[in-house]
Amino acid sequence: MVVLMDPMEDPDDILRAHRSREKSYMFDVAFDYTATQDEVYRATTKGLIEGVISGYNATVFAYGPTGCGKTYTMLGTDYEPGIYVRTLNDLFRVIEETSDDMEYKVTMSYLEIYNEMIRDLLNPPSGFLELREDSKGLIQVAGITEVSTINAKEIMQLLMKGNKQRTQEPTAANKTSSRSHAVLQVTVRQKSRVKNIMQEIRVGRLFMIDLAGSERASQTQNRGQRMKEGAHINRSLLALGNCINALSEKSGNKYVNYRDSKLTRLLKDSLGGNSRTVMIAHISPASSAFEESRNTLTYADRAKNIKTRVKRNLMNVSYHIAQYTNIITDLRSEIQRLKKKIDAQGLQRSKNEKADIRNVQAEVQLHASQYKRREMDRLREQLINTFQEQMDIRRVLMELENNHMEIQINTSRHLLTIADWEQEKTRRVRKWREEMRKESDIKDDSEKDSDTADDQSDILEPPEVMSAREHIAKLVKGQKIVRKQKLELEKRFKEIRLRARKLEEILPKRISSEEQREVLSLLCKVHELEIENTEMKSNALLKDNMIRQKNYVVQRFEQHRYLCDEIIQQQRQIIDDHNLFVPQQLEELFEMYLRELEEGRLDRILAIDRVTTKTLKDNSLPMIARPLKLAEPTQDLDSDQDSVKTFGSEKQLLRHKYRWNTLPPLVNENESDTNRVFKTSPYVQRIKNSVVMTPPPIRVTGMVNQEPPPTIPNTSSHLNSSPDSTDTFQEVPLTHKERKQILSSTKSIAVKAARRRSKVLEADNRLHLLEPTKEKSSLSLHSLSETEDSFLPEVVGYRRLPSPLLHHAASEDNLSTSTGEMLSRGPNNQTESPNTWQRTQKKGNKKQEKRDESLDARRRKRRSRSFEVTGQGLPRQKNGNARFRPMESNSDHKIYVNGQPVQNPRPHGKTVFPIAKVKLPQSHHTGKSSPNPHIANISGGSRSNSWGGGMTCLETAIGKNGRLGIP
Ligand SMILES: Nc1ncnc2c1ncn2[C@@H]1O[C@H](COP(=O)(O)OP(=O)(O)OP(=O)(O)O)[C@@H](O)[C@H]1O
Question: Is residue 301 domain-shared with residue 393, that is, in the same domain?
Fold first, then answer.
């Protein structure tokens, strides 16, 4: 509702009170000054577009006085486009949406009626155009340019171009006053794409008209041309008003004069015919425009009453048969078009599908390759882990094996001690029985038996034997633990090897690239070599242990031989001194003994042994085997655990070395090499079944053991090594470096042992009885240290001990005491000098002299040999007395000659063989700790000190004996 109030109305004017000019008008919609272009468009024009497309006519025209915003509403600005642009945009959008089914043709024309003349705004040079009415009563502009386009942007450009051609002049009322009526006609022809004989064409026309504003001359102050323009404008608008008035009249027979102006003629259909028409009436809120507003509203109100009959503009085209050809051609072209469209769509779809398939394939491939890579990495990781585990287990087994070896060596030593004691006990019992037999006349048999029994049981075991039994019990326990651990590890090793074998089968199948295969193969080869190296080291260690064990046996025999020599010589001296009768047979035997000494048969045997030992050590390990690093020369010589520590450090070194990503080889005994990627070396093949080599058990017969270990079935008076296992070890030679290191180790131990021996000798009171002994004892250590290098080869060889006669001839050391010479001659002879001894010797007959000469010759020969070996003269020989000490051992307190023990004087207060008098320091027996703490950890820390102590003791003994045999 629009309420128009009269600004001139005076409420106090009684006379005009009943003639109020205030009026209310009702419209479909009214906009105030806040309304936007879009709101106006939506409320007025938007609803017409669908009708136009489907064949209905429609008209939107802006009506009102000048300067009230008609052009603004219809055309708008670039930023606020008006109805023209908005309508066309929507029109083309709808056409596009339905163009699949319908065929559209859109034409546009733009004209102006200026001073009752029609101008083509799209083609101004075409001049003034005439209006014509066709046979169907439709008003047409003859010669008007109809632009066919379906592009909204193009239409906008045309509109802008045409609008510039529109006559626009400034007036007093409007700076941009339009001096003409502008008519934009858009014709939409729509037909179905389905061809038929009867073709239906829908033609919708849309008129969008921006009328010129009615103006009053007084208001516009127009003169001349402007005034003339105004007159024309007003006339045409008056005609429009008249038409509206006529159309709006409700009376039946009305006459509408459209012919008064070109505007009404053009809008004939729009106003009263077949058209949906929207009239947008513009008014000014200014009180000065009251009259114009009232007129406008009055016309708009009247126009409201105009009723039009709208019908769809259909053109049914019935084609003639002659046109069928064209129709068919059209249809074919349409079919082709549709086919192309379908093909294009199909192509696009298939492209999309193909792209999808390709994407899917690529994705699948990517996933597959990623999975494959992950799987390969996983397998490789597993393989490396199995190799690593194999390596670790082999290493631990090696350590356990070494432990086992040490235990066995120590056990054998203790068993020997016990066996010796058992023999001693038997001898004592026998002796006691003989004594008892002599007294049997006095006592009756029953008493004797009971006494015998009592006496036997009363024999007290020496502490070293008890200690040996304790040690054996501990060692047996330790051996059990080690064996159990070994079994578990071997079982685990088998499992891991099986796993590795499976991986070995899987991996070549999975590896696609030859390069990968090669790299992996090389990697495995490296680890194979690593494990081979470990195995060889293990064997080298075992062999070293075996050699030490063998040397120990040799030393024992040599010790024994030394005693025999001593006894024979002394007894021979007694015989000669007292001119005792010697049976022929004994004489012959003695001759044979002398011959043997002269010919040096035993020396040769020892030489052979030395050569064998040396050969074993000389045969180098292959270069890939990292040599064992034994004692460093710079190590602390006071340490009791030198060699053991070094062994431990070697293990640490190995462990460190294997910590990097190393792989042990894949050993598959059953698989043929051709089917394998990772082959086992011949060496590994050869020793793979003896990876865990067990040294031969030490058999000691006649031993009474409280708890005999399984691998030590019974006692034996000798150590025996299995020849088979020895052969196995001989296959594994030592490198030069290793040999050197062993020698260095021996040197360290030798120096240390000599130092200890020196201390012991100094502490021994008996040694102080002989003045030179003290000197030589102190000298010996120095000498040893000095000449160690030159002695080393002989140290390894373990030269035979020199004859005791030689020591006596030297007469400078305490060996005469230690060999029992003094004792054999009685207490009175203890102070007798060696010279006296020699003088006595010269008193013999010629035969004896000859023998002496022979012995002297042998002595000289040996002495000269010692010079040759050492390269030094007398001082070395003098110092050699310290090295003539027999082997020290906690179990060597007694020496047994031909089964008869020579007792240690200290426990029994009888005859003394000084060989047994030297005792090792206490620390030497107990040991300080496990030689390898890592091993202790691996074996659950159950390793007792006695194992290591025993091992250390053995090494020390070897070192001393090595020196003993040198000069
Ligand atoms: N709604 C509106 N918002 C902003 N400015 C408007 C609005 N309506 C009209 N105008 C401004 O008023 C001035 C006159 O408007 P316009 O030229 O559209 O009037 P008209 O009715 O077309 O005049 P004439 O009949 O003389 O051509 C123009 O500068 C136009 O920008």
Answer: no
Question: How many distinct structural domains can be found in the chain?
Answer: 2
For ligand 1, whether the C-beta of 178 sits within 6 Å is yes
Q: What is the pLDDT of residues 896-951, one digit of tens each?
A: 434 444 443 333 333 333 333 333 334 333 333 333 333 333 333 333 333 333 33
Chosen domain end from 316, 333, 367: 316
Side chain identity, residue 83: I
DSSP letter at 166? S
Q: Which two tokens stand for residue 485?
A: 């651990």
Distance 80 CA to ligand 1 centre (A): 13
For residue 328, being part of any structural domain is answered with no
With a 6 Å cutoff on the Cβ, whether 211 touches ligand 1 is no
Q: What are the pLDDT digits (tens) for 606-651? A: 777 677 666 655 544 333 333 333 333 333 333 333 333 333 334 4
CATH number, domain containing residue 213: 3.40.850.10
User: Percentage of the chain surpassing pLDDT 90?
Assistant: 6
Could you say which DSSP state residue 914 is in? G
Top-confidence residue, 448 or 210 = 210
Domain boundary among 298, 316, 334: 316
Closest CA to 131 of 244, 260, 232: 260
Distance CA 729, CA 545 (A): 10
What range does the domain containing 191 cover? 44-316
Q: What is the pLDDT of residue 735?
A: 55
Rounded to a whole number of angstroms, the distance between the first and last alpha carbons of the chain is 145
Atom of ligand 1 nearest to the CA of 72: 18
What is the SS3 assignment for 315? Answer: strand
Does 72 contact ligand 1 (Cβ within 6 A)? yes
The verdict on 275 and 383 lying in the same domain is no
In angstroms, what CA-CA distances link 365 with 358, 372, 508, 648? Answer: 10, 10, 21, 53
Q: Are 780 and 881 in contact (CB under 8 A)?
A: yes
Least confident window among 7-11, 274-278, 368-372: 7-11
Does the residue 352 lie in any domain?
A: no
804: annotated binding-site residue?
no
657-663 mean pLDDT? 36
Question: Has residue 161 got a pLDDT over 70?
Answer: yes
Split at pLDDT 50, 70, 90, the class of 27 is very high
- The model's pTM is 0.41
Is the residue at 14 inside a domain?
no
Element (H, E) at 220: helix 217-220
What is the H or E stretch that residue 477 is in? helix 463-510
Interatomic CA distance for residues 749 and 755, integer angstroms: 10
Contacts of 774 (CB under 8 A, 6+ apart): 762, 767, 768
69 among the known binding-site residues?
yes
Q: How far is the CA of 191 from the centre of ligand 1 (A)?
A: 39
Interval 850-862 mean pLDDT: 53
212 lines ligand 1 (CB under 6 A): yes
The alpha carbon of 68 and the centre of ligand 1 are apart by a number of angstroms equal to 5
